[in-house]
Fold these 2 entries.
Entry 1:
Amino acid sequence: MLLGRLIKQDWGRSILLGTLGVMCVVVPVANLLVPEDSAFHVSTYTVTLLGKYLSYALLAMALDLAWGYCGILSLGHGAFFALGGYAMGMYLMRQIGTRGVYGHPELPDFMVFLNWQELPWYWFGFDAFWFAMLMVVLVPGLLALVFGWLAFRSRVTGVYLSIMTQALTYALLLAFYRNEMGFGGNNGLTDFKDILGASLQSDVTRVVLFVVSAIALALTYLFCRFVVTSKLGRVVTAVRDADDRTRFIGYRVENYKVWIFTVSAVLAGIAGALYVPQVGIINPSEFEPLKSIELVVWVALGGRGTLYGAALGAVIVNYAKTWMTGAFPEVWPFALGGLFILVTLSLPKGVVGLVRSLPYWLASRVLYMYHKWGSLIRAKFSH
Amino acid sequence: MFRRSVHKDKPARGFQPLDDQSSRFLARKPSRDELVNTDSGYILYLEDITVSFDGFKALNELTLYIETGELRCIIGPNGAGKTTMMDVITGKTRPDFGTAFYGQRLDLLRLTEPEIASLGIGRKFQKPTVFENHTVHDNLELAMEADKRVWATLARRLSGEERDRIAEVLDIIGLKEEVLALAGSLSHGQKQWLEIGMLLMQNPLVLLVDEPVAGMTKQESESTAELLTTLAGDHSVVVVEHDMEFVRSIARRVTVLHEGRVLAEGPFEEIQHDAKVIEVYLGE
Ligand SMILES: Nc1ncnc2c1ncn2[C@@H]1O[C@H](COP(=O)(O)OP(=O)(O)OP(=O)(O)O)[C@@H](O)[C@H]1O
Ligand SMILES: [Mg+2]
């Protein structure tokens, strides 16, 4: 009984929040205070890499909210991530000021290069941090609201919805590749100098960005947990499992789907805004349909419908990717595909499901062995 | 709750909806009972409802009236259109033509499924449908009459009264012991009851119950019969069932559907001896 209760306890939450808390202390100390020649020193490169993983984990959690809890399999969540990233990138571009190659006080280099005379209207306001942060939330949120409203109101579900989300991100990909769009074409936005007056090259800024990502992930987790354990969260899972039943007890299923999809998109946008200053670039490749599919693999591998599972999956796959693209770059796409097949076939509940069922499995093996050997021994002694 | 019907005959064909605008001028939102006007003694009016699927007429000019507070059994062979009729009443299927009114004011064909549900028409599906990944308690809580808009639901907590109501319904459906069990782990019969319990939580005026005793033991089906009979009176209950034993035990008035229209209607004994009915249904 005790064992059962121990197993049932929600370890994932404690582990996730605990790890994030410890990392918030250890990583800054190991990078800034531990001398560089010490074995305990963590390089700035690693800090940034970890920060990138955390922003991916946040993105995965956002998708899990929509897919794991409401059954909305979005294959275009990368689009919301990229839009949040572009909003942040636009702010960072405006911070370059006269330090660009052409030294223009207002226009980013690529606009000078295109012979543009003035800033397009949609770039106004992005020199203010608060405005850019507002856009990080509003742009993905509004797009998801409009898209969701149209799709869910016409009761588009399942594969058709997934295909529509793919089309959405693909359309944005094509649009952002065009130079005339005013977002830097295929080069995207890069060569950032500083954020809120602090140089992006400095170790301290990198560490602060990492800590902010960790806190954002923890807050996102707590927020998502609040949502999924609320009555609304239970309605949302009800919609996932039996949408007709939910409708016939008086819930407007479409509104719930739009709500959860929009919230999920806003979170994805925030993840994008955390990602861009750490990797130093945002370009249209973030809209690639393949990226969104990869994101689904992270969530599936970690275990959907658990939130922390999604975060875990994001870290595992991206760690493997970093390692493998270094060691055998041509193998990675196949490894990813294989991973997806493996997970869907043999790990329907992902790594989290596997870990959860491990104690039961062990117990059943022990019992089995006990019976098997027990009867053998008894057989021996009865002779 | 209801004025009992004084009519023994059907209303004259050619139902006229109440055209009064009185509720328009109320300063407050009209209550459900004000909206659902049943002064005439009838709560559901279906007239000339035709539903076709790819040219096949699942309902063919079906005309049916349900009295306020009555318990009506609907029988008929497979494919007669019984479930489709419930789909029309609850807004799931829109008929090609015909009229469907709920009370004398509410045109069902203009309302959405959640609106119809909130106005007090509850429905149990033919295939028992409960939220398998939720506990019995949560299933009842979700079904409970409440403000079901998104933001209101986010911050919603149970009040003491609501807890009592859940306990009361748990008692009625006999699932007290299973209150924290996942609905998916219940037996088929228990799921049927849970779904009936969810219906009760909605505090409906009309209960549409599609094959409630399928998969139930004889005892279970007897208590279901008892439950439905006690509900009638305060509620109007429409039961679709194949089990003749069950129908005999509860029926006051039976309607036989065949090929999308009413073949016969009357007390069970009369129906039982109707030649047409014997031919298409009982004689099977
Ligand atoms: N969505 C649909 N598309 C096409 N045909 C349908 C659809 N729904 C119902 N039908 C057909 O309409 C007819 C009436 O179906 P309905 O489910 O109303 O019958 P029923 O009286 O409830 O039968 P049963 O006793 O088997 O439940 C059937 O022939 C069925 O095949
Ligand atoms: Mg049926």
Entry 2:
Amino acid sequence: MTIIHNRPLDDIAETAPTLGGNAFTRAFSGGSLWRLIGMLVLILLLGFLTIYPLAMLLYGSLHSTPPGMAGEFNLNGYRSIMTTQNLIVLANTVGISLAKTIPSLTIAVFLAWIVARTDTPFRGALEVLITLPFFIPPILTAMAWGMLANPQVGVINMVWRWATGATDPLVNIYSYGGVIWHMCQYSIPFLFLFMVDAFRAMDPSLEESSRMCGASRWTTFRKITLLLMLPVLTSSFMLSFIKGIETFESALFFGLPAGIKVITTDIYESINHRATPDYQYATSLSFAIMGLMFLLVIWQWWMLRGKSFQTVTGKGFRPSVMELGPWRWVTFAICLMFFFITVVLPIGQLMLGSFFRFFGFYTYDMLTLEHYRAVFANSEFWRAVRNTMMLGLLGATATMALGAIVAYISVRTRWRGRSLIDGMAWLPWMMPGMVLGVGFLWAFAMLPGPIPIYGTVWALLLAYIALGTPVSVRVMTGAYHQLSYDLEECSRVHGASWFQTMWRIMVALAWPAFAVGWVLTFFGIMRELSASILLYSVGSETLAVVLMKLWANGNAEQVSVIGLMMMLLVIVFRWVQLSFIKSRISKL
Amino acid sequence: MASVTLENVSRMYGAVTAVDNVNLKIKSGEFVTLLGPSGCGKTTTLRMVAGLEKNTGGRISIGDNVVSDADKGYFVPSERRRLGMVFQSYAIWPHMTVFDNVAYPLRIRRRPDTEIRDRVMNALRLVEMDQYAERPSPALSGGQQQRVAIARALVFEPEVLLLDEPLSNLDARLRTQMGDDFRALQQRLKITALYVTHDQAEAMALSDRVVVMHGGRILQVGAPEEIYRRPENRQVAAFFGTPNLLNATVKDCRPNGGQYYKLSVEGQGWAGDCHAATEMPKGADVTVMVRPENLHVRNAGEVNGDLSWSGEVSQAIFRGSHRSIMVKTPAQTLHVEASSLSHVDIGRPVTVAAPVEAAWAVRN
Ligand SMILES: Nc1ncnc2c1ncn2[C@@H]1O[C@H](COP(=O)(O)OP(=O)(O)OP(=O)(O)O)[C@@H](O)[C@H]1O
Ligand SMILES: [Mg+2]
């Protein structure tokens, strides 16, 4: 006899449950058909934005004539880029990028440390000031510095000559130094933005325990702080280096006049400055630079593999702040000086330039408002304003919407094909604007006749969306990672469908990040020059393009007026972003 | 309120089996707890019932309706299962007020505003949170968030309430109090509840039945006292508290007239009687479990229990509510929980005794 108790399944058979629902609800219980259609549309869209121009780039590099003309396939393009001269171009590109990354990183670390970890006064305001240059279109500061440090009529050199009686200029912006100097002004705020939160979020107990073990402040900084920051520093370095290789404006304004060529300007020149544009050369070179970028990205990935950012977490403590005593006014002054050099000086120059009849002749009787009148009477200017605004609003919205969807699918679902769309959205990361521009040039020209995108603003819009997508995906990925799955699942369990959950929970919670990303993308579009200058045509100019044309005609005075206006726009937007979005986020 | 039935339910993650052939029937109005060490598949089981995870094998039904059948490829998504759930993190939506959080399930179901107001306020009153209705939800303490989460889960009278370690984020005192409150509420409203925890005390205090899981399988299902006093095997026995587990051999086995068998066992340097669930052949190796709180320390030689060991005190630790005494015997060191008033000297020879009902034998 055995006594059975606690049978695991005591009475399951007593009521046999029945299958509920009908055939229809059963077939659609996973919503798989709609999901399939949605994914397909997304893949086609991303394919058109990223794979298609890439494929056309390859096609173009093997094709002997410009887009849309009959020709033959050959390797002449690749043969023509294998020259010693191009070796120098390559060395220039890599060298300049390295030469700007190292000092930029050092200064950015120092500034981030000042703002995040010391008791320097007005740190909050300083942070806003230090990051402001990042939002100013590089073309504006490039033009301003072209006037400020012009060897003949630049204000700096005029003051120098007047003060010392020397005849030689103090600085010449048209040089290696000039290119690097201008790039640094953008790298520093960019790296600062990238790193400052990591500095702020570092758990102070990690440092404090080192102090308790008898290490001095300096030893602690070297052995703990810096090592903990190493992953962030490495990735900052790589990012800045890659960005440096993509940079166009600095080399265009200060390198070309001095005969210093980098890859992006070489591509530009071969299309825009030769008697007959050499498209095959340009596309081959574009493909070559993409190969270089690909290697760099692989290297970056390899360097950062397995490195965890977990030591730097973001919750629950205020980092200890170092008390600097009287030195805190020194650090304050350093931060302020950075702002002065990178923002106040260029703005001052633009003002100066806009009010005097001729650039370089700053005397009382030369004061005038004629340039303002000329600009406001210029219909091309107004058209460019309209285009830029339209492209900015539409482009930023579309880019962020695409990024939000792609990020959601790759982070939050397990749908088949999610890594594919994630990968496709990331592709433009490896393509400098110049290269993507060349790719789209071919892509639009090869479209069948009934789709007249080529030469319209829509061409620019598509290029901007493609360029902005990697960043928008990143921003939204970060936002989704911070929202726990529970918030979403809880809504599902309590009766909300997938769409209701998306709208009421995810959109409602992720929109601050969306807004931040939107503003970033908008600024990105405002400053975009390299793709625009290849894809614009009469009627679809952006402000940056109009500035370029005026500059090329030697009209520095009207450039100053338009530049000043753009500067104002940037500052207003940034102010709105800071005061509006920040206050909304802190409410959550 | 409805019953929940799991038949041969499994869940694989690639080659890993997180839940392995689980069979369980939860009756209407019953409070069942899933208990087990970290990673044993409790959360996965709960999430399969919720429809947040698809079972790769078996069938799940709520009430009379099948909600998921892996073989037929049938799956009802979460939102159509009519469940209430309390998450470990509470999942209080930070962009809504307390009221909006609780109203959410009703708004999704498009109920009229007056009904929403009444039912939300009722639910909030139930958890004593009605005065906080208009608070933005981030401005709540952990305990308050937990109550809001419960109110939200109850507001639309779900078929079943699912809870995943809802008390683990609270401090010890609040945990006990909230647990007792919730149990009272559950009994009053006759809610069917499936509750996940890794805290044994919580599981025993709250549940009608406890399901002990390990490695994705169910080890034992039973009332808390049943599981605590009469585990089916050594693993379950070891899971609760720190029992003394002694190896022994069966000398004799006979029915004790009631539900159980009475065994005479012999270990290294000791012998005595104990109970067991099943008949055991003579000479079988068994593990005898004696809980520390059921052992008594007596003067050496003074034997009046059914089981006794002689040894000497090796350690005594004052723990406030009781005194932990370690007694070194030829078999092994025994852990005894004695009254904190009792006084023992280290090194003193003693006899440790236990009544026959306190000793439970399981097959090795
Ligand atoms: N998405 C997943 N992919 C792969 N394995 C998983 C996944 N989710 C859970 N597992 C595995 O399934 C097993 C059971 O996990 P589950 O979360 O159910 O454990 P648990 O009992 O709730 O543990 P805890 O008490 O720590 O919450 C674990 O071994 C876990 O590693
Ligand atoms: Mg769990």
